[in-house]
Amino acid sequence: MTQAAKTTPTSMRRICLDAKQPAAEGINFAAETIGSGGLVAFPTETVYGLGAKAWDASAVDKIFRAKGRPANDPLIVHIASMEQLPAVAREIPGLAYALGRQFWPGALTLVLKKATKIPLNLTAGLDTVAVRVPDHPVALALLMAADAPIAAPSANRFSRPSPTTAQHVLDDLGDAVDVLLDAGKTAIGVESTILSLLDEGPQVLRPGGVSLEALREFIPKLDFRPRLLGEDEAAPAPGSMLKHYSPRARLLVFQGDDDLAVRAAMGAEIERHQNIGLMADDADAAAFCGFNVKIERLGTGDEQAAKRLFAAMRALDEQGVDLIIARAPEKRGLGLAVWDRLLRAAEGSLVEV
Ligand code: TXA
Ligand code: MG
Description:
- The protein is of the alpha/beta class.
- It has two domains: about 5-215, DHBP synthase; about 250-350, 3-Layer(aba) Sandwich (Rossmann fold), CATH 3.40.50.
- The chain has helices at about 25-35, 55-65, 85-90, 95-105, 135-145, 165-175, 210-215, 260-270, 280-285, 300-320, 335-345; strands at about 15, 40-45, 50-55, 75-80, 90, 110-115, 130, 150, 180, 195, 205, 250-255, 275-280, 295, 325, 350.
- Strands 1, 2, 3, 4, 5, 6, 7, 8, 9, 10 and 11 form an eleven-stranded mixed β-sheet that branches. A five-stranded parallel β-sheet has the order 14-13-15-12-16, sandwiched between helices.
- β10 (about 195) and β11 (about 205) form a beta hairpin.
- α1 (about 25-35) packs across α5 and α10 runs parallel beside α11.
- Bound molecules: threonylcarbamoyladenylate and magnesium ion (MG).
- Threonylcarbamoyladenylate (TXA) binds near residues 126, 130, 134, 152 and 239.
């Protein structure tokens, strides 16, 4: 059950677990590490998180240092079940409980007013807190064994794509993590949907694993208005900063309904470059077979694209391409989250065909 991989840095312990039935021994070791103020990287159904005990301000501070994350970008608190919500939030609206009953455990993060016990560095000085119950046996077992809420952002270095495998965590954070719980690839591949339930009414801050269509059964007029840095420099919402989910290479996103026209534009771009990468679904990838381009296939459909997106960005970076091109999916279902991550990674560079 417990084995150190060859590439594991010496001071860090990598524990390999069955994703469905994680062994108690490994979970307990990780929970003790959390209890004594250490950092544990663990899988959730969305992406890997970098966790510390939420009540422990100095452990929380280690997360910011390990990631190189600016202190003004608040973390998400993970809880084992909805019963723990009053421990981390206050003045909780009925809608939060209704959404929790429907979507938790799951990829929905709610922004609520914070309980006083939550340290201010965790929320970047805000009076609000982001909270969710993750839908992964390893994450839930860890939360229960730790017997405390766990603060955890995605376990990547700041501005890198979120990690969907334990290897991504190792590549980015290595020794900065005390324990790495490795349970293979994450199921969804993009982060949770963040929904603010503060006084101004429900607002989607980040589209993610739970679709807007599903949320509209509870909040019929819910919409997502992307705000990219530059449009509103004065008050960027937390998490809306550009350069957030980006590969090292520049990224250019093509958008249009006419397959032939979009492929022609992408083909022309490919021909202008020597060292270019392409992230494309199977149909588009087949169209560029034989071109001078490094291709990462995103499969077929939005679910597969979400699952593979961040790994594809990392893979093309490793191949050292200067430019990556991709095609914007339709903005529905999980496609909206993929669209959002592509546009952020591209820093808004969109070619409308
Ligand atoms: O799926 C996920 O949400 C993953 C897994 C590990 O749970 N976590 C994740 O965390 O993506 P992170 O830190 O990479 O993204 C958290 C986002 C940030 O964009 C942050 O700005 C936003 O949540 N956030 C946290 N607290 C907030 C608050 N009080 N108000 C508004 N946004 C907040
Ligand atoms: Mg993140």
